[in-house]
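Lab meeting, action items carried over

1. Structure of the two-component assembly. Owner: GW. Status: complete.
Input record:
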Amino acid sequence: MQSSAANLLVLVPLLPLLGAVCTVLLGRRLGPRAHVPAVAGIGAAAAVALLLLLGTANQVGGRHADPTHPVEPVEMISTLWQWATVGDARSGDLPAAEAGVPIAPGTAVSGGTFSIPVALRLDPLTATLLMVITGVGLLVAIYSIGYMHDDPGYPRFFALVAMFVFSMSMLVAASNFLLVYVFWEAVGACSYLLIGFWYTKPEAARAAKKAFLVNRVGDFGLAIAVFLLWMTYGTLNFHDTRLADGTFVEGILGQTRIADEAGYVAGAVGTAICLLMLLAACGKSAQMPLHVWLPDAMEGPTPASALIHAATMVTAGIYLITRSAPLFMGCPGALTMVSIVGATTALVAALIATVQNDLKRVLAYSTISQLGYMFVALGTGTMLGFTAAIFHLVTHAFFKALLFLGAGSVMHAMGGVIDMRRFGGLRHVMPITATTFLIGACALAGVPPFAGFFSKDEVLASLHAKAHPDAHGSDHGEAGGTPSGTGIDAGGVADRGVRPFRPASMTSRSSALASRAIGTTGTLSTTDHASTPEKVGLDALDHPSTWRLLFWMSLLTAGLTAFYTFRAVFMTFTGPVRIPKEAGHHAHESPPAMTNPLLVLAALSALSGLVLFFTNALANFLAATPSLNAPAVLATAVKHAFHPDIAIQGTLAAAIGIAVAAIGHLGRRSDSPQMERYLGPLGALFANKFYFDQIYAALIVKPLEALALVTAFFDRAIVDGTVDAIGQVPLAWGSAIRRMQSGLVQRYALAGVVGVLAIVLALAWQLRP
Amino acid sequence: MNPFSPANHLILVILTPLVGALAAWLLGSRGVSAVRQSAAVTTLITLTGAVLLILRALPEVSAGHAFAVSEGPWLVDGPFDIRFSLGLDGLSIWLFGLSALLSVTAVMVSWEAIKEKPVGFYALLLILESAMLGVFAARDVILFYVFFEFTLVPLFFLIGIWGHDDRRRAAVKFFIYTLAGSVLAFLGLLTIVLWSASHTGMLSFDIAKLTAGLAAHPLPMDARGGWLQWWVFLALFAGFAVKVPIVPFHTWLPLAHVEAPTGGSVDLAGVLLKIGIYGFLRFSLPMLPEATAAAAPWMLGLGVVGILYGALVALAQSDLKRLIAYSSVSHMGYCVMGIAALEPVAVEGATLQLINHGLSAAGLFALVGMIYERYHTRSIANLGGIAARAPWLAFMFILFTFSSIGLPGLNGFVGEFMVLLGSFQRAWSGVAFEWRTSYLTMAVAAVVGVVLGAWYMLWAVERVFFGASRQPPGDHGHAPPSTADHGAGGDDSHGHGHGPAAAEPTDDLRWYEWVALAPLALFVLWIGLFPATFLAPSAAAVRTAMAPGAAAFAARMGAVPDGSPVTQTAQADAAPTLPGTAIVPSDPPLTAGFERIP
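Predicted assembly:
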């Protein structure tokens, strides 16, 4: 099972990659059938992903009964090849000639072997996300056959989409932080090329560059986080490995370390790692303050927006934090920051979305807002929060892809027009698009019983539990607690202490080495306080009042979400039929290649939440992920329950939002005066997206450009000027020497050699034995 | 005597381009195409020979031995032990291969560009190839210096004769600047030779013997000995820093690149800059460990300054070739940083980064040359929308751009990542407490350089390849009609039909350009996906080269930095002394151990 599943796993990224390569090689020859390799590759990958999902579910098996009881983690690793290995500097790695040379202390600083295997993993989290990526990817690819059919870049588009599916599957399947970083940037590169797909449009080219650069800022955080992880844990692997020489290396997210309650570094270093990861996640998942690239990314083709900038790539940040859950558990301050960032982003993006008139931008801000929702849930640091985030990720992938593809369908029919004020009443023109869009909107707005209602309910419930720790029964006792320090007997504490920076590869479980390690680190931990985890100032944020505030922010966001979603629905599909002149005479429903994926996604958006919530299958399944099997996470597991109080609050918020939207827009001309005229100065603030772009331009871009100009001037005038001035010195030596300045290089060279010889002789005389 | 013995194989590979230069000269009367074909054949034969040699050498080299060593005695008599000594080892093997590979590129990018005096051009290019191969194969100080200087002369003429408008100034500046540095370096090397001779009684120029000799009798690094080691280090630094170039000794580079013909730029950026770092690894680190250790923080600082400074200046350039020249300055900063970090991961990364930069910079310079041939301008403001007219050219440029900005999966990432990782490791656990903040700051600043690097390169890509296609002034009807109004319709241009269909890709890569770029692209991917293939053969030699420097650095840092259990536990089984108390004495045992090396 293990090996065959692992072999199958390789196929998930491999098949789309083959599709991409075939499309590149055969693109021109295939002509209008250039989509075949890509669609086939992604389709086959989706089939394999389904098999893997079922296989993994089978392994997790009948342990569904009670989430409060620990489940056995399920994890399969398949190592493909060794990417890079740098052995440490200790003896044995040195060439034979120096084998006997003792290495002075301080040279053997590398904490073990820097070994990066290209290893893939299969666990419930990965299996779930692979299914979402390939499934939505397949639907989007099929949709694109219709949407992109007369585009001259047709083969290029499919090659890029297949390439993206490859990179994204690798990102969630990689079992190593370095590989995660690799594909973290690789999906960014695919995104760059897809945003800039219509590269002759200057806005598209600019948006692509912006996306890449903003993401690079996030990548900067991830890079440093990876460096710190390496320094702290001495490996970058997720899983436990055994080196060629038999050394056992505890992976950062390996089962040995996860089971070890003191396995993770807390305090300043741990918090720094978590915050840097949060920065990275903010970049990729478009959270404040790095969210500015996503709305501009709508310059890309709509199917790409649906797949990359709504359903999959932007959820990479959520994946990263979920995967690194054990790292975060010891840093309540960092966790709270995740929620604060998420809630703020969710609210701000929702406010901006209320006044956008470009349908795709409404959806873009809605994506930012919903991703913020997932961050809020992650930040609670509870089993419920993590599973709710992934639950919302899955349902969001369905309904947001549906909404984007619906918007694409509208755009397709309207001749490329996407400004909602220029069309209206389209439900008469394109009924399938209108119906499916409405289903997606209901799911997004959280109308029961559509998918978004249930996942949003879980998110709010996880927040509520943190905000009212007493109200949720005794099994919540450790919800806000920190992992280390609980349940370790005194001897264990004394043995392990707080162990910042200790690389795992150096941590033999033998008592001799352990005591030596204590001997060396003993100065850092005072024995009598060893059980108290290191606190950082940020941890003070983790307080019920913070969570209460976040809960209300999220509830407000839910209302706003319902408002802007239905505002878009009413503006686009109700009111008198109006069609822009660009659409010509062929404003009609889209072809089946486009509407069929819409129907599938609509079914998923309508039903997936209901099914997944009442069976609780997803949460039980995910609980078998090693990362969520950390004792600290398990301790927060609660019985699966429906929360009628929260459901009522959420539904009420959605109802109010929809009602306000209906008052303002239902059945009206979409170019009639907007509701934002009641907002006063706030309207301008929202319409200008809280002036983020302007602030960045003024604070970062312009100063850096000015600095670049100054540096270039300095380089030319001062640095090169000095060189030239020194070069002029010989000229001032007078006419006698001037004749030597013949410009003949041979003569210069001769002079140089003569001079050298003279100095050699002088030195030889000096140094004679 | 076996003509195919490794030693002869190596000599044959180095001599082949010289023979080819002669052939080009003899074929001169037959016209351009005969000359360039002969040059292409010569470089291909040389490349084949080099590849075969590398394949033969890999097992030996991976084990840390030198391969294909030839020792023709020049003057072996009495106290003189001067030999003509060639060979390859882990430090040089990939640079040797890179020289052979890029020579093919240099010839192919000149295919149509050089119509004037082709004989001289191709002959010089081939002589340059010989010199480049020789400098990496030299195992002898004199030979190294001869080849080192020998690379200057052909390039001087290549720039001075076939360059652009300001070629004479560029050539003279390049030559004088580099010569001035290298003469100082030679003085330093001679001091080493004489110091060694004064202790062993044998005047030898052999690098291995010198290294061993200096390990036994290090140059004095104190006031009593006149700080001789320090002075020698500075002399070598002068030569190598100019060559790398380390900021602020870099101003010859942009000028030389902008004025050089494409073929010259490819060799200059791809290979010649690497000699500087190679020199540090070959001479400074193993021979002058204490001085290297003393200078390491400052060199690291210069590396970081170079990264940021090069990136900022690049951001302000309006000439595409100048921009890439400054990106070279920035990227060589990573190499400087890597060797100055004195960490195994970082030094191995820097060694690999030499190759990576060689590939990506050579590719980018070649592509700039191709753009110039088509549109007769390198001004970023005058170019635009090339992707529509030459999609494969754009593809290649974006590929090498991604490689250059360190996109994972491609080669540039590997070296950059390892250098940065090593620097962090050094900052975290390898320096004395008072250095820690500055080291961490430098490491973080270098990571900022990664963001800046993406900025200027993507800015250039956006301006040159994307956007509306435009006809550069001075373009004499090469390009199809301007499509400047294409796709500029704001919101309305969402959707369909706004792709590059209007412009037929008539300006795309020609076959000889494919020959120039495809091998580079192949290696860009290969190194990115399987870096271990390229790291492993160099590892042993890199360790040997850096070990004295790293040991001296550790001694200098007071052995064990404060609060660094990584170091402490790492040493737990290696060092009997308790970390924290172990201050390495002024005469570290490591250097004593080197006496055993013959």
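2. GW to write a short summary for the group page. Key points so far: Chain B has a mean pLDDT of 81. DSSP finds 22 helices and three strands in chain B.
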